[in-house]
Amino acid sequence: MSSRRSRLQKRFTTIYLLLRMLQAAVLIVFLLGSLALSGGQVAASGAPMWGAVVDFPLFRLPGWLLLAVSVVGVLLVIPVVALARLADAGRVVGAFSATAAATAASFFFAWSQPQTTPDDSTLRWAAAITDGAVLLILLVIAGTVAALADRERSRTGVPVWTPGQDS
């Protein structure tokens, strides 16, 4: 039963990490594309710093899409955390790290995108706040699991957990 739980936890964590890293990757593409094509303009309140090939924004992310990704993230993080054991400390800490990157992307897009409708802006901010809440929850859980895993390893004489030693 433990190996089934472990396989499920790994699968959910992998899917969760892919989703969250996709959010961060979209931010990187947006920033690099804005730098190259939109004259360096990254926010609606800004202006191009040099000749823009493409008008700002490089691409629009609708609020409903950001919120949908955020809600899927919430649904995926539940089994990641619920199935985690001390041996999964590395995966839980990794989930926290990926969530931090995704949260930064969510807040950036909530702030930087032009307001098309009040509802769209509200949805973008709701997604950012949801991601921020998940980040805070994961901060507590990841810190606790990592500390408990270190304590357990010390107690049993195994070297303390370090990144890259996740089983």
Topology:
Elements: H1 2-37, H2 63-82, H3 89-112, H4 118-156
List keywords for this structure.
elongated; mainly alpha; 167 residues; 4 helices; single chain
Indicate the proportion of strand residues. Answer: under 5%
How many domains make up the 3D coordinates? Answer: 1
The count of helical stretches stands at 4
Overall mean confidence score, pLDDT: 90
> What characteristic shape results from the CA principal axes?
elongated
Weakly predicted, low-confidence segments: none
| Number of beta strands | 0
Could you walk me through the main structural features you see in this protein, from its secondary elements to its overall organization?
The protein has 167 residues and is mainly α. It has one domain (2-156). It has four helices and no strands. It has helices at 2-37, 63-82, 89-112, 118-156. Helix 2 (63-82) packs antiparallel against helix 3. It is elongated, with a radius of gyration of 19 Å. It starts with a helix and ends in an 11-residue tail after the last helix. The model has no long low-confidence stretch (mean pLDDT 90).
The gist of it:
The chain has 167 residues and is mainly α. It contains four helices and no strands. It has one domain (2-156).
